[in-house]
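Protein: HTH luxR-type domain-containing protein
Species: Planobispora takensis
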Amino acid sequence: MFCASSVTRAPVLHGRDTELDALRHLIEGAAAGAGGALLLVGAPGTGKSAMLDAAAARAASFPGAPPAGSAPEREAPGRTPGGEVSGTTPGRKVSTTAPERESPGTGPERQDGFVVLRTRGTRMEGRLPYAGLHALLRPVADRLTALPPSQAAVLGQALELGTAGDGLALPAAVLNLLLAVGRPVLVCADDVHLLDRPSREALFFAARRLEGEPIALLLTADDAPGGAPFDTSGDGSGGASPELPADVATIVLGGLTEEAARQVIDDLAPPGLTGDLRASLAHAACGNPLALRELVGSLTAEQLRGTAAPPEHPPPGGRLWRAHAARIARLPRAAADLVLLVAADPALDTVTLLRAADPRRAPAVPHRGGPREDSPHKDGPRKGGPRPAPREARRQDAERALAALEAAERAGVVVRLDGDRYGFRDPLVRAVAYGEAPAAGRRAAHLRLAALLDRDHQRLRRAWHRAVALDGPAERLADELVEELSRIPDGAAGGRDGFPEPFRVMERAAELTARGDTRAARLAAAARHAWHAGLPQRARSLLNRLNLLSSLTLSEEVRGRAELVRGSLELRSGRTGNACDELLAAAEWLLDRDREQAVRALVRASEASYMAGDTHRFLDITRRAATLRSPDDPPATRLMFEYLAGMAATFRGRHREAAAPLRRVVELAPSVDNPSVLVWACVSSLLLGDDAQALTLSTRAIETARAQGAVSTVPQVLEFLIQAELWLGRYSSMAANAMEGLRLAQETGRLNSAAQHLAWLSLAAAVEGDEEACRIRAGSAIELADAHGLGIASAISGWALAHLDVAAGRHASAAGRLRAVARADGTGGHLVIRVMATPHFVEAAARTGDVGHARAALAVLDRWVASTGSPDRLALAARCHALLAGPGEAEERFRHALDLHHRGSCAFETARTQLLFGSALRRNRRPGAAREHLHGALETFERYGARLWAEQARGELRASGEAPPSRGPGGRVRGAGTAAVETGAGGMGAVGMGAPETGAVEPAGAAAIQALTAQQLQIARLVAGGATNREVAARLYLSPRTVEHHLRNVFSRLGIRSRVDLVRLLS
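Structure follows.
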């Protein structure tokens, strides 16, 4: 086989299903004698060459491809009936007669597959005419003899001597040579924008004449503004043309989706990569596949262990860095100056940028290698001659600067952004523009900007630029940085538009500080800011730098602050016991020096014991905190004290006593804007039974956290938003928010929050009756809970498995699981979850005859629900009493429970009571009365997609002597309402958990997408992002078989047949 490159197998390309489908259609069309051309355009590193490799691998092994010339005979496009090529000069004919085919037994042996010919443009050979064709056609040069003599002579002269006459003889000869191969041909021309002009024109000529021919032409080119990557200068210098071959289909390769980037990282990285490191790499790469490869390859052992900060951009000197550096190096001097200024401060508006470019305002920015040839001052200052007036000179300077900016924009280095400013499409371009400039140039740029920024309204940015321009300690400037940062409202200082985040400002202040104690305090503050920003690995690296300072020289206050950050990190991602110890030590050190931070440390220590399920230690901490109260405390501190008092009373079972401090927590919430403090108001609302208020507060806490850049707080808030949705019966929204919380927790390194979200997801799966998903998720949550001492996550998972057991009729198993949940010693149980799970325990215990334990558990539940006045909670308690009552009393108790349910909000629990009541009536030989309740229960369970509960209802209906309603194609009762769309208060929309109908339907739109269950929608989005079934299963903690089952239902529900259709529909 002739092939310009040997291809053994196609590369794995994640997130490129749509593009690969286009390549497949192109190759299949050429194999069938209906060829065509396709142009792939993208930034460096987006995988254009990898797409060519994939196409070449597919074509080389394509089965049963017909030989060239076997397509049905018809007039080829671009040819006149007389054989002239369309567009030739009248009177000048170029033969386009198809070349003679080899007779059997001569020439190369025929095989399956295509002939694959490849060439690649390079800047060096872009100045050599016909160099691209020479590389492309060498493997088939022996077929020149099959061409008409005139064409063979023209093409041979071009390939051997690099010369050829004008006109269409040579392009026609190239096309005919490809036809003379005798088999289907795939032509791959990489970096076509760097090819010499004659080669490029010949390929474009062929591209327009492939219909009806067994030839596929695949081209790639770098992107450029306006979609104009082509060099028309004829020398490969990269001048851009505004004209693309309009009649050649074009696909623009953008960045990979988040899920596809995750898959690339997982393919390349060693096992055990943490979620926050994976998220950092994906963020730094901006979806660029080559950037991902280079970032993973650059990881050090310390970065892999999590003790050093992750890389922020691909390594200098790598392929991607060099590609961008070469583009910047070709800019004119004035454009390069402006690009450096934009890199130094991407928040610059255009007016300030032009002022900074004025050579009269500051010294010129130095460049490597001295003045450039295009510099107006390369021969020194101008001497003599008339000078323009100052105003006219400034206007001319501004015009020159704007022209320079336009040159940088045309080169694809900068882009015009909203708000009259310039920036970078890719953060790596900014890193290259800044990193490639000499140190003196960077310092001059920062000093120039510091001198121009407003002294009153841009004080922090001015201080930052002055700080970056310095090398050694500068105590006064460091103090100024800290002071100015403290003036900025939370969330308003950093991370936007590339401006430094607060942790960078504090880190720079520490570097400029010589005093050891102050330097350490600022490193601790930087670590705290990094932690709040969801960068735990960066925070740990800053704490490690702090550890290098001698602890003997540090004050107790500084050690306390550092220990508070360290304990907070451990609280979110480590063992709760260790976190509690570290936070108590921090409180001890801070008590006499920073009382508010000491109280915060105690509250977090109590949270550690709460998460562990260690009631005794929790009460010890609350007793200690109670001695610290002061009437002068600010609102946030008072709120924390009231929360601890209310929780202490709750844990002692004194719920009426707990109500007053818990209400004061809610009352104080409007005066607090710290999302990590607002969380306690959410908890207080839940304990008071006010689920709507809990939703409102959690929504506000989430919005505040995002506005302040404290994204790492969002997973914690979602834990309590989910509990409110659980009480309200909004299970699909609960599942969607739990999935979002799991994603954010993994990305921000909050493993302990991830365990809780996994546990809540297992409970959502239990409601739906998905046994496999429930067990996988609960097992993963319990494994993480056992490793980190998370009694609450373990208890939620046990409750989920018990729910599954009760739904399946395994009451003894459920009762055993829930007894373990009741432990309050930090060994896998949790008091709060035990109370929430009491209705399931009473049901399971009553069915197994364990009435004594059921009554004891119910007494605890009674005390709590009576203090709340919540109809939903009171209804559950009334149902429990009905289950334990005698035959004469039970009916009255059930009716009272249903009355309470109808005043509440949870339709699902109403159905559960209807099912139990109907079952009791049937057993008491009242089948007619039973059916009314059983029908209502079945309809609700079907609407929720609660398969096991629906089966129970059907079984009871059959036992009552009535056949249950027939089931629809997807398992839905005929006539049952579809699930309503739910929207969580956290702003994450979800849909009802009804089972999808199957059967072929027409392609659907937004309405059908909304009818998917929350889990189906998650699976659909991941698959549309390029994930395989196995990858989706790993991400959602499901089995591949479950994913395949859900995906079949998704396809049927949406009326589609392929993943490509799914991508198009969801896009």
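Remarks: The mean pLDDT is 84.
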